[in-house]
């Protein structure tokens, strides 16, 4: 990132920070609440702190023209419903007018949607001990899927879909995987063959209601906060309509190429079976969903090249994607 782009980025974040501050009175928050950047990706998230009381919250300023108000409200409604069902999620805070989602406009940042959440205490699970974490992710996935199948969605419900075309198609939501850096012609050919095999297998697997529905779509260790016996699921921005087994694959996001991936997927299945049912056909299709997720993340890497995460993956990760595709073709073709 050049000096010019760095300055432009900092100016952009500062404009969103001022927008966040301008929203504080609508919640009745005192003027001394501090607003500090917590993260910036699809959306920009700020931490709110009251230095006098220790009170904290999280304010999310949504990316412009990405999700509609109905789609964001549907996300908030599902998070509330999950929490009511005993599945811990960050809870939306309401304004003085009783709204959980508001539109704010400033001269510098334009119009944005804003949602604010109660602060959640906790730490991320230990990435050095993956098997128990994968088992926990399986348990949580099964409980969420059971609730999502039963949940009566509001009349205005709207979320995007995560079909094969949405994830790895030429017009995928996260761009084109073939635009990723370091790909050579041979690797592109292997990935194209893997995508074609995925298409055939997923068409056979089907999209019946027991296989395809409302999912988190990014349920991985980085989106869990653990404090004592309580595990809270965070970051529902990608939630939408897709294959339930997509949540299995997202549990291994960015590490799909690990040599112990089969063991980790089976630990996820072990956890899932505590609260949900998996058929042998489901388990046999795990490699397809894992490959789909990896190709989706390759597209994400190409379209988010300015982010630290994308830059940290590097050439070896891209090569590992092609190697995973080769193994997938050998195993499932």
Automatic annotation (TrEMBL):
EC number(s) stated in the UniProt entry for this protein: 2.7.1.39
Residue span, Aminoglycoside phosphotransferase domain: 39-273
Signal peptide span: none
One function term, GO molecular function aspect: homoserine kinase activity
Keywords from the UniProt entry: Kinase, Transferase
Pfam families (UniProt xref): APH
GO biological process: threonine biosynthetic process
Membership in a protein family: Belongs to the pseudomonas-type ThrB family.
Protein name from the UniProt record: Homoserine kinase type II protein
Organism: Herbaspirillum seropedicae (strain SmR1)
């Amino acid at each position: 990132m050049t000096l010019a782009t760095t300055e432009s980025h900092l100016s952009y974040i500062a404009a969103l920070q001022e927008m966040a501050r301008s929203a504080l009175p609508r919640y009745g928050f005192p003027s001394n609440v501090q607003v500090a950047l917590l993260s910036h990706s699809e959306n920009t998230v700020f931490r709110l702190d009251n230095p006098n009381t220790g009170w904290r919250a999280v304010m999310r300023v949504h990316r412009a023209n990405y999700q509609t108000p109905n789609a964001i409200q549907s996300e908030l409604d599902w998070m509330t419903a999950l929490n009511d069902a005993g599945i811990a999620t960050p809870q939306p805070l309401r304004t003085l007018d009783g709204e959980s989602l508001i539109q704010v406009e400033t001269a510098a940042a334009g119009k944005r949607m804003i949602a604010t959440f109660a602060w959640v205490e906790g730490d991320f699970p230990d990435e050095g001990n993956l098997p128990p974490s994968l088992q926990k992710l399986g348990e949580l996935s099964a409980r969420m899927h059971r609730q999502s199948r039963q949940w009566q969605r509001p009349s205005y419900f709207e979320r995007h879909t995560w079909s094969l075309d949405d994830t790895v198609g030429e017009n995928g939501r996260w761009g084109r995987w073939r635009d990723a850096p370091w790909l050579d012609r041979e690797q592109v050919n292997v990935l194209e063959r893997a995508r074609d095999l995925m298409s055939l297998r997923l068409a056979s697997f089907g999209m019946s209601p027991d296989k395809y529905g409302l999912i988190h779509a990014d349920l991985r260790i980085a989106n869990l906060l653990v404090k004592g016996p309580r595990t809270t699921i965070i970051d529902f921005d990608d939630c939408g309509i897709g294959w339930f087994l997509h949540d299995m694959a997202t549990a291994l996001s960015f590490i799909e190429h690990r040599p112990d991936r089969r063991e980790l997927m089976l630990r996820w299945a072990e956890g899932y079976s505590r609260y949900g049912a998996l058929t042998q056909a489901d388990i046999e299709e795990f490699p397809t969903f894992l490959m789909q997720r990896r190709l989706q993340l390759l597209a994400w890497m190409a379209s988010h090249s300015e982010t630290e995460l994308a830059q940290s993956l590097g050439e070896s990760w891209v090569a590992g994607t092609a190697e995973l595709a080769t193994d997938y073709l050998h195993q499932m073709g």
